[in-house]
Design a protein that fits this description.
The longest helix has 28 residues. The chain has one domain. It is mainly alpha-helical and 148 residues long. The protein is 70% helix and 0% strand.
């Protein structure tokens, strides 16, 4: 099981600039599991910023996070393609979520518990949707279904 998770994660990472195919729920879930584990392991490095660690480590951490953002963007678009939805809908979702979040930041005169909950809940909604919504059976306009 663990081996399958890391193989799926590696396969997802190799598709960093693939925005045209499809990704199933298993690939998406496995990627999230490994990304969460990796971020938990890197969190101490991030918190050491307060202790003035070497800038090289911080730049490395930033580079790894930027790579994760690209991989995640590609995966989310491919996951939306599996549901037979255009990847451009993700841009719409991000725009609406950001506007809602910024509205509550302005209304609360800064960050509060309510804005934090609203901010996280909009992104958790998308994650849950992508994990549990089943893709289309057989080929769709974005290609054949993923093999694993």
């Amino acid at each position: 099981m663990i081996k399958n998770i890391f193989i799926s994660f590696w396969n997802t990472c190799t598709k960093i600039i693939n925005f045209k195919s499809r990704a199933n729920r298993k690939e998406y879930t496995y990627y999230l599991i490994v990304q969460i584990i990796f971020n938990i392991c890197l969190y101490p490095i991030h918190t050491l910023y307060v202790l003035k660690i070497h800038l090289f480590i911080l730049y490395f951490f930033l580079l790894v996070q930027m790579i994760f953002v690209l991989i995640t963007l590609s995966l989310i678009i491919r996951r939306l393609h599996d549901i037979d939805v255009s990847g451009w809908w993700y841009l719409f979702y991000i725009s609406i979520s950001t506007m809602i979040y910024l509205y509550f930041v302005g209304k609360d005169d800064g960050f509060s518990l309510r804005t934090t909950i609203i901010g996280y809940s909009t992104f958790i909604f998308m994650e849950v949707f992508l994990i549990f919504f089943k893709g289309t059976e057989g080929p769709n306009k974005y290609g054949d279904p993923p093999e694993y």
